[in-house]
Amino acid sequence: MHLYQAVILAIVQGLTEFLPVSSTAHLVLFPWLLGWPEGGLPFDVALHVGTLAAVLLYFLRDWVELTLAGLGMHYPASASGTQVQHNRRLFWYLVIGTIPAGFVGFLFEKKVDESLQSPLSVTVTVTIASALILVGLLMWVADRMANHTRELNQSNMGDAIVIGGAQALALIPGVSRSGITITAGLFRNMTREAAARFSFLLSTPVIAGAALTQVPKLLKAHHSGGIDMPMSTVLISILVSGIVGYLVIAFFLRYLQKHTLKVFVYYRVLFGMLILLLVFLHSGHAR
User: Fold this and answer.
1) What are phi and psi for residue 186, nearest 5 degrees?
2) 248, 235, 180: which is closest to 47 by C-alpha?
3) Which of 181, 152, 146, 211 is closest to 20 using CA atoms?
4) What is the per-residue pLDDT across 187-216, written as a single tens digit (0 to 9) for each?
5) Cis peptide leading into 20, omega within 30 of 0?
């Protein structure tokens, strides 16, 4: 894979990890659509390290406050008792919400990763396209039905269970972790921004856990020649995906203060339909 291809895929990862459009679908389908060589699972892991760094840096202060409060400390000292209590509850809601995705990932992540290896089967490609469309429509329903009244400081155990359960579905290619969790938050009548913040905070432990388990495999693959690109290209790609991811988080949270999710619904549905059309045409040509 050439450097420019790796950088473009890093930009794609940075854009799609936090926008509700499925980074997995794009990382798998972009090389397929453009006829590029695939970076493979180790390269995908490297790109996720970049976006993990982005979400950690963006929410670093939040995580420090939540973690210290969750462990029983009054931090920051200037915070009111009410705010510390909210942070303590939110920390444990996030811990509970992480459990379903961690459990499902432990059981099925290897099988899903194997199904995404090249060459893609028709079944997997259709699954990705269908998930793009179905979750897009579900997002549209949630955005229209929600009353958008509940802020992040009003989150509760029900939110943790529902949104955490939804996050477990993100293992299905094409679903989108942010897409399905934001949708679940909207069904819980959260504001769009609150749903996105809860989604991003909830994703951090899962992405971090995946990175901790996969990075040693990435290094091993590089040493054994399993990555067909220089380490400098991998490092540049991590940096690019991290920078783009950070900017996307900042943009998306501001965007949701005044806009609906309609544009992302349209994008998901149209992209999914395009993929189904290409699969149909390719299958017809193969006959």
Assistant:
1) -65, -40
2) 235
3) 181
4) 999 999 999 999 999 999 888 887 777 777
5) no
Tokens describing residue 34:
């453009």
Contact 102, 213 (CB under 8 A): no
Angle in degrees, 0-180, between the axes of helices 231-255 and 40-58, rounded to the nearest 10: 40
**Lowest-confidence region among 138-142, 149-153, 210-214, 262-266:** 210-214
- Rounded Cα distance between 49 and 261, Å, is 27
Task: List beta partners, residue 150.
Answer: 190
* Total-model pTM: 0.91
Q: Count other Cβ atoms within 10 Å, centred on residue 216.
A: 9
Give the tokens for residue 180. 């399905």
Handedness of CA 197, 253, 211, 117 (dihedral sign): positive
Percent of the chain with pLDDT over 70: 92
Report whether 42 contacts 217 (CB < 8 A). yes
**Cα three-residue angle 70-14-27, rounded to 5 degrees:** 115
What does the angle CA 129 – CA 6 – CA 168 come to, to the nearest 5 degrees?
A: 40
157: its two tokens: 């155990």
Please enumerate in sequence order all residues whose Cβ is within 8 A of that of 7, keeping only pairs 6 or more positions apart, or say none.
Answer: 236, 237, 240
pLDDT (tens digit per residue) in 113-140: 777 766 678 888 899 999 999 999 999 9
